[in-house]
From TrEMBL:
The protein's name in its UniProt record: histidine kinase
Residues covered by the Response regulatory domain: 334-451
PROSITE patterns: HIS_KIN, RESPONSE_REGULATORY
SMART domains: HATPase_c (SM00387), HisKA (SM00388), REC (SM00448)
Top-level EC class: transferase
Modified residues annotated as 4-aspartylphosphate in this record: D385
Lineage, uppermost ranks: Bacteria, Pseudomonadati, Pseudomonadota, Alphaproteobacteria, Hyphomicrobiales
Name of the encoding gene: luxQ
Coiled coil segments of this chain: 63-90
Protein EC: 2.7.13.3
Organism of derivation: Methylobacterium trifolii
Pfam families cross-referenced by the UniProt entry: HATPase_c, HisKA, Response_reg
Length: 452
């Protein structure tokens, strides 16, 4: 082989070796670059992880702080709730005690005014007596309403649910409002099919009385309709009036305490005394206690409809015997009064004497024992105040006389305390319970019925 040929072979071999080295070098550079990139990414991830950990720690601390503040806030809310409930119970007890103390002199005043009205008076004196009676009635209504609101707010009202005949209830309400409606020149229509519902009779009656009273008060012309009808397997009671109506901005306010509508200025309200603004508030609370849905619809200038929905009863109400017709005098009846309030005892004694009854009044059981031992008075019927002095109870007088005579006497138990246990005690001995202030007409009717 020539020298020239060997030189060409050497160049080609060298060239191939150079290309191989270049490929190796490129591969090594690529590997190094990849290694650098991987190390760089890991470092970046490490830095990111550290940063995220800091953020998580910060957010965790913030969340923990919020949780602690929420716990403290919840503890404060619980404490505030307990304090409010305690204050509410205290308010209820205070109102109950205050109502009892306020109703005692009010009872004496009403009995005295009634006794005065039975005397021969001139026209002016009769008008004044009627005005005093109306003012006392307003005070009584306000006290009882405030006490009702307090009891409903405290949740101590326990509805006595039973079967209620709506036609009988409607008839009684229509009869009681008839004089008031006729005096205003309005019409009152009661329409009800033979429906029996499940409710508390007394609370339902109060609801409807307040609704009708409010409707009549705010109606200057036209009338009021009380209607009941079946709706979706339940009974719906509507009280509809043709009064001034309620604007959209007032509909959520009419059930608040002491709120009186502003839409009747110059209309129905000018001819009568304004209401206390508590009737619809009582309605709302009683409907909640009974779980009877309440709704209102109204058009200003056209009237208002308030609806109450009640469940139907599967049974008929029990028949209640009706009292015999009452007379107006109690000639010769011997009535023993046990009353520790001197003014109430004196007013009640004068009232009964005006009805030709023979009356003996005592303050306590010791006075009754003295009267019995003297042998000068044998009662036909007892009118006993429940709360006597020094924690004594009027029912002890009934028990003592029943033991001494060997037979029970008819008892009328009077009290300004609406506690259910008093009603239970009266029922246990067959006594008639009359809450103060005593209504003279009711008392006369009850006395005549029990003596008959």
């Amino acid at each position: 082989m020539s020298v020239h040929a060997r030189g060409l072979e050497t160049d080609e071999s060298l060239h191939r070796r150079i290309e191989k080295l270049e490929r190796i070098n490129a591969a090594l550079m690529a590997h190094v670059e990849r290694s650098m990139d991987q190390r760089g990414s890991a470092y970046s991830l490490f830095q990111t992880a550290i940063m995220l950990e800091g953020r998580v720690r910060t957010r965790t601390e913030e969340l923990t702080g919020l949780m602690h503040r929420l716990e403290r806030s919840n503890e404060a809310l619980v404490a505030a709730k307990e304090e409010a409930e305690t204050a509410n119970r205290s308010k209820t007890r205070f109102l109950a005690a205050a109502s009892h103390d306020l109703l005692q002199p009010l009872n004496a005043a009403r009995l005295s005014v009634s006794a005065l009205a039975d005397l021969p008076l001139g026209p002016d004196a009769t008008v004044i007596a009627v005005q005093v009676e109306r003012g006392l009635q307003t005070i009584e209504d306000l006290i009882k309403t405030l006490l009702d609101i307090s009891k409903l707010d405290a949740g101590i009202v326990r509805p006595q649910v039973r079967a209620i005949s709506l036609p009988d209830l409607f008839a009684g309400i229509a009869a009681s409002f008839k004089p008031f409606v006729e005096r205003k020149g309005l019409r009152l229509i009661a329409h009800c099919p033979d429906l029996v519902v499940t409710s508390d009779g007394l609370l339902l009656q109060r609801i409807l009385q307040n609704l009708v009273s409010n409707a009549v008060r705010y109606t200057a012309s036209g009338g009021v309709v009380i209607a009941a009808r079946l709706r979706g397997g339940a009974a719906r009671i509507d009280v509809i009036d043709t009064g001034c109506g309620i604007g959209p901005d007032e509909r959520d306010l009419v059930f608040d305490e002491f709120y009186r509508g502003s839409g009747c200025r110059g209309g129905a309200m000018e001819t009568e005394e304004p209401g206390l603004g508590l009737g619809l508030s009582i309605v709302h609370r009683m409907a909640l206690a009974l779980d009877h849905p309440l709704s209102l619809a109204s058009r200003p200038g056209h009237g208002t409809r308030v609806s109450l929905t009640l469940p139907l009863s599967p049974t008929r109400p029990e028949e209640v015997p009706r009292p015999v017709p009452v007379s107006t005098r109690l000639s010769g009846a011997r009535v023993l009064i046990v009353e520790n309030d001197a003014s109430t005892a004196d007013a009640l004694k004068r009232l009964l004497q005006n009805w030709d009854a023979q009356v003996c009044a005592c303050r306590d059981l010791a006075g009754v024992r003295a009267a019995v031992e003297a042998g000068g008075f044998t009662p036909d019927i007892l009118i006993l105040d429940y709360h006597l002095d020094d924690g004594a109870c009027g029912l002890d007088v009934a028990a003592h006389l029943a033991s001494a005579r060997g037979a029970s006497l008819p008892v009328i138990l009077t009290t300004a305390d609406y506690a259910p246990e008093i009603e239970a005690q009266a029922c246990a001995i067959g006594a008639e319970l009359v809450h103060k202030p005593i209504k003279p007409a009711q008392l006369r009717s009850l006395l005549t019925y029990m003596l008959a």
